[in-house]
Hints:
About 80% of the residues lie in helices and about 0% in strands. The chain is built from 28 helices and no strands. The protein has about 750 residues and is mostly helical. The longest helix is centred in the last third of the chain and has 48 residues, at about 705-750. Mean pLDDT is about 80; it is low at about 755-759. The chain folds into four domains: about 1-160, no CATH class; about 160-370, Methane Monooxygenase Hydroxylase, Chain G, domain 1 (Up-down Bundle), CATH 1.20.58; about 405-535, no CATH class; about 540-755, Methane Monooxygenase Hydroxylase, Chain G, domain 1, CATH 1.20.58. Helix 3 crosses helix 4 (about 60-85).
Amino acid sequence: MLQKARKYTDNTHLADSLKITISAVIPFLIFMPTQQFDWAFAMAVGALLTAPVDIPSNLKDKINGILVGALMVPFVTLLLSLTQGHWYFYPVFIFILFSLGMISVYGHRANMLSFSGLLAASLGLAHSYTGKDLWIHGLLLLLGGLLYLVVSLVFYFVRPRRYGVLQTSECMDLTAEYLKYRAQLWTKGTNADKIVEEQLNIQIKLNEVHENLREFLVLNKANTGNSSNNRRLLVAFSTLVEILEIAVSTSFDHKELHALLDEDDPTIIRDYQALAEDLSAAIKDIGDSLNMGLNYKPKYDFDRKLLALQDKLTAFIDNSKSPNKVEAVLSFSNVLHYAQSQIDKIHILERILTEKTFSDNVEDRFKELEKFLTPVHYRWETLIVNLNFTSTIFRHATRLTLTILIGLIISNFFNLLNGYWILLTIVVIMRPGYGLTKTRSFERVIGTVLGGLIAFGLLFILQDNHTLIAYLTILMMVLGYWFSHTDYKIGVTFITMYVVLIYAILTPNFMDLLIYRVIDTLIGALLALGANYILWPSWEFLNVNVHLSKSIQANQKYVKEIKEIYNQKNDPTLSYKLARKYAFIEIGNLMASFQRMIQEPKSKQRLRSEIYELAVLNHTFLSTAASIGVYVQSRHTTKASESFNLVMDYIDKNLQLTHNLLNNTPSEEDLITAEDQESYRVSMSYLQNVREYELKKSYTDDMQIKNLMEESAMVIQQLTWLAHLSEKILKISKVIRDKREEMQQKKLVLNPTVLFKKG
């Protein structure tokens, strides 16, 4: 119980919350003797606004990022305060908002810097400072930002490697969960489609964790050198990536295996499923031990269980009279080979935790990892190419600027108390997509109302006990920023509570403040939601086609690399590994896009079933292609036949044609001709005859003959399925193309002026 509690609390989210809270409380402790609470507030606000820029990175980037944030907050505040009341205030205000919105094109850190700047612009209108007071206020904001930098650095030096450990542990948890779903596929009557959907969701999360770990390991090596801890984490990460790739790339026909084996010995699959569940549980235990810093003791005897399964398979070979015995043995031998591969990888993970001195030479792995990093370039051209309405960020920046401007006008017109809360609400909940904005709008309104009611109840009970209220305020602050990362509604509830409690200490009319906070939050949420629906909306059904196209292209590139490696019989090249990486990333991006689409209004979920079907087909295609790639790497294979290459060319043409259809760029040279169809038919017929011939042979223990039989059975089976999937992908893409054309025609009939509009 204590270990579970520690795992839940000892994470980066709580650490971030503590950094923010400590940085906000210290100014009050400093200025409490002189009762200069305005100065304390200013410093605390400077720390709070600088905090979002503090994202995990190497020490140099951390310091530079926080310094830029600490300088930007007072700069924005001073500029708006100096222009307020003049005719040029609104042009300056609009320019600042739009510029801050546009810097998001430079990646995650720039996006968080944009967020801090927008918050500063909103809060900069909360008070009207002039003369010396204005400059003192700006200086205190800067000092607050610098104070946060000091606190953040203290946390960093106390536990400099904690982030890497937590990310590796999370990677283990997600990988274990993926394997757990794989084990469930062996249960008869299970909902395979639902399991595949869950696996895709896990892959989306794993893509993000993998990218975070790549960046941390490479940048951390630059700071700390090739330390033992770095080597351990790198080997763990590389092994987890390999475990996932082996799992994704090894697909089984579970129904067929049940049919082939259950009649003679139904316990074989049951025992294997238990082994598969243990594989998942072992990785989960390793992740927990790494997270908690505990000594790991292996408790699963995988080798014994695998040997017992091999003995059962031997007994099946000796006793079965089934005419499909050879096929059953070859298929289940592939299952056992998969299990052995995963067991070997898990033993590596166990060794990372059990060996006191870890001296593996991982220099080559570090060099390879560097090539897999996605670079971020701060080029002027990156901003220029996004200054048009085809850019999602440009539309969002324009939409956000106009919405905040409308919120400011409403606040001034109705002279609302603390009207800047409207602007803060817009900045916090407004996102480029409608779905996430809608979700955050509802959660923020619910959290604000709920937090206000709970805070009012606490104040009614505590009356004027300001000391206890102050302690509760600090606790609510910690909980608010902690939960904001994991459950936004709960986070907003606690944040509203600490805001109300602070005002209860400082002012007697806190009930008015609470009422206005709810009203302002509701106005801001409605403005954000309405703007995302009306002002240049970025509907996901428009973006999902881009992700479909990229996923198809990534799969096409991967298939070409597999064909190359099968023909050349060489070790996997960097281009092969990069093609594999981007194929997995793009399928994750595709599913993430689809999930965003289904959060939008039903009228905007166009071709939902067809897009989902194509996304799932893409995932299945990738898994099947990867299974051939893994087989070629892990086994000795014969020379690729001309038929194999012709079928792979046919698959490549299907994918290219699919890509052209999705992008409405048909090309005569990419069309599949009658000659292509005939070559494919003859080649596939030849390969299937070879497979049937091998399966009709008597089973033998001769390793060379056995490998040849297995290659013929497994590779041809997967190749056949791959070709079939490419045809289905092409077919559904034609359906999508036809339905889009039909919708366009209806649009023209209803509104002929569409013909005269650009784009």
